[in-house]
Structures are given as structure tokens and as C-alpha cells.
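Re: your question about Sugar ABC transporter permease

S., sorry for the slow reply, the queue was backed up all week. Below is exactly what I fed in.
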Amino acid sequence: MPVGRRPPPAGPAAVGTAGGTAHAAVRTAPGRRRRTNGRFARADRLAPYVLVAPAVLIIAGLRLYPLALGVNFSFTGDGDRNGQNVGLDNYAALFDDPLFTASLRNVGLLVLLLPVAVAVPGLLATFIYLKVPGHRVYRSVYFFPAVLSPVIIGAVFNLLLAFDGPANSLLGAVGLGPIDWLGDPGTAMYAVVGVHIWATFGMGLVVFLAGFATLDASLIDAARVDGASLPKVVRHVVVPGLSRTVQFVVVTTMIGMLTSMFGLLYVMTGGGPEGSTYLPEYYIWFQQGQMSRPALASAASTVLFGVMLVVGMLQLAILRRSGRED
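Result:
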């Protein structure tokens, strides 16, 4: 192009081409945006499943699969019938065994004593939260029993609850006769459960204290201004406000009472006297470790799992209903 001359203006064809390209870009941008948004939406929907998948695989591989194997093994025989399918014979043998039926009766006793096991850490947590006199002592010593071995705890309480031990010495000092705490079938189970509650209430207390961190303190202050007594504050303010926490502690405490008392039973009573302190977990150990009857022990484990499932669901249903009524 010669110097000094301006380029010719773009013709209609060039303008039309540029305008068509712009209009095409405008037309295709929303479509591309919709496709991109659709991919992001699908990714958002899949993200929770991807995040949960490792935990589900671990639970399925390490929990559900062994549980299914144990249930299947409970339908096989022991001894001369080892590996043979025996149907429901093991379950029939369980319910014909007085030791197993006694262990189930003791499960009913644990259910009746469960409110005590939940109330102890709940009340102590309430005292600490409300800063009643002595709350600093509770805060400093409440977790100490939880770090002790059940073997140590059982040995210590064997000495304290012996027929000539300190507990009976104190009863004698106030004019009450001695009690055979661990040798009387009528008191042995209560003694072991009491020791278990003392040894494990620290975990429940920690959970309750965490629940109090979410409680609206203004409600308690308002109740105090209105002149409500401590029992009424607990009944009408604390318990409804901690309903979820109470549900969690109830279920975990019941599971602990059914599956974590073996150490105390082994050290303190050995299942006696007269089989009065047998629980399903102790019966399972006895059949597996002492009688070499693993299939029967698997059947007892399956029954224990069913009992725990039913009791837990009933407890949650009752607690939810009471929460709605409040």
C-alpha cells in the first residue's frame, strides 16, 4: 500500500463476517456455560459418595463381612459335627443352657440399672457446669478411673468388698451387719455393675460437658431468676436442651455395659457365684476359650448382637418420644 493512503473501509462482506462470528460466540456461550454448570452439578452430587466411600469400604470389609461370617458359622457344628450344617441346633442348645438364660436375665438387670449409669455422669457434669461447691474437685478427679485397667480396678475392689474388708468394717461401725458383696448371688451382680459405673462414668461426663458447650446459658439464668430449684432446672432446662447428648450417652453406655465388663467379671467373680454374674460376653468367652465350642460361641454372639440392636432402637424411640413431649 502506498505511503499516505488510508486502508479502504471494510466492505459489507467483512462486516457481515465479523458480526456473524460475534453473534455465533454470543449464541454458543450460554450453551457452553450450561454444559460446564452441568458437569459441576454432577461433580457436586458425586462428591459426598466419593468422600464416604473409603469409610464404607472399611466398615464393610472389617465389620460387616466378619459379622456375616460369624452368623454363618453359628449354623455349623462343633466337635464331631465340625463344619457340618446343623441348622438351629446351636440356638436351641443356647436357650436350653441355664448359664445363657441367666446371662440374658442379667442383661435385663443392666437395662434397669442403665438410668443410674447415665445419671451419675450427667449430674456430675451439671454440677461442674453450674459451678456448685466442690466442682473443682470433680473436674480434677473425674477422669481418673477411666485410665485404670479393669484388672487393677477389679483387684482393688476385691480387697474393698471382701467379707472382712473396709466396706464391711464401715457397715459394722454404724451397726449394720457384714454383706458378702461378691459371694452372695443376690448382691454380686449389683456390686460388679456398681464398680463398672464408677470405672467408666468419666467418658460419659466428657460427652455431657461437650453437650453443655452447646446449651443456651440464658435459659438457665432465666430459670434461676424465676426461682427454679436445681432439680427443676435439670428437669425442664438441662435435659431437653441436651436430648441429643443424652441419647448418645444412653446408647454408648448400654453397649459398654454389654461388651466391656469382661475384665471385671473375670477378676472379681469369675462368673460366680452359681453363675449369677454371667453376661453374654462372658458366656461367649467361656464356650470359645474353655469349652472349645466356637460355633456355639458364634451363635451366642449373634444373639448378643440382636439384643444390643433391639435394646438400642427401643431406647432411641423412647428418648425421641419423650423429647417431643417435652
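The chain has 13 helices and no strands. Confidence is low (pLDDT under 50) at residues 11-26.

Happy to talk it through on Thursday.
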